[in-house]
Amino acid sequence: MGFVDYYFWMGSEWTLIGADRLEAVALRHGVKIRYYPIDLPIVCARTGGALPAEWPRERQAYRVADLKRWCARLGLPLNPTPKYLWRDVHLASRLVVAAIRLGLDTYSIYRAILQAQWCEDQDISDEATLRSILHELRLDDDQLIRDASSPTAKQIFTEYTERAIAAGVFDVPTYALRGELFHGQDRLEFLDEALSEARAMRDISSPSRDFNPQTT
């Protein structure tokens, strides 16, 4: 079985827009997704980028227009300017780290958190909000919050971010297959094609042997 490395930020609307389609692509090709929530502000600072909140007015306006187009195409009820826009998502990110370490359904958890922010106007920087989301998923919020707050989760979150930078990631969402990067949910078609080619050639790479907390 092959792997797609998936780098994403829990403050990203584009991560939510691509979430379902990425899962469909992986299922279609029988590959596993390795999830890497990362600290995008650090990535931007290290790679010469800027967060959406720092963009000039013209880019901000285009972002909203483009989001509306994609939401209409995909039937997503996403709000481009939710009430709690671009808040601190460190705890939410580390909750995903904890979910990975516990072997939980990472996709359902990170998608539910993003859905709460971008579609339901909830504040995902608030611990009570995150607990409510976990309750709705019938998960142990006490354990997950405790694990997400641990030094181990914080260290792994840092390592995921460093891994992303080392791989050449500069923005999210980014998908990596055999070292080739596909940046943006609008590049999922190219990832799909690359997986088809690799599958035909029986040349999907084996898992890397470097440190991977997701398997420990």
Overview of the structural elements:
The protein has helices at residues 13-29, 40-47, 57-74, 90-101, 106-120, 127-136, 141-148, 151-167, 188-201; strands at residues 3-8, 32-37, 174-177, 180-183. The two termini are 19 Å apart. The chain is built from nine helices and four strands, in the order E-H-E-H-H-H-H-H-H-H-E-E-H. The protein has one domain (3-215): Glutaredoxin, CATH 3.40.30.10. Helices cover 55% and strands 9% of the residues. Strands 2-1-3-4 form a four-stranded mixed β-sheet. It has 216 residues and is an alpha+beta fold. Helix 1 packs parallel to helix 9 (188-201) and helix 2 (40-47) packs parallel to helix 8. The model is unreliable at 204-211 (pLDDT under 50).
> What is the CATH topology assignment?
Glutaredoxin
Helix content: 55-70%
Name of the CATH homologous superfamily? Glutaredoxin
Q: In angstroms, what is the radius of gyration?
A: 17 Å
Number of strands: 4
Instruction: Give the C-level CATH assignment.
Output: Alpha Beta
> Which structural category fits the helices and strands?
alpha+beta
List the main descriptive attributes of the protein structure presented here:
216 residues; alpha+beta; Glutaredoxin; four-stranded mixed sheet
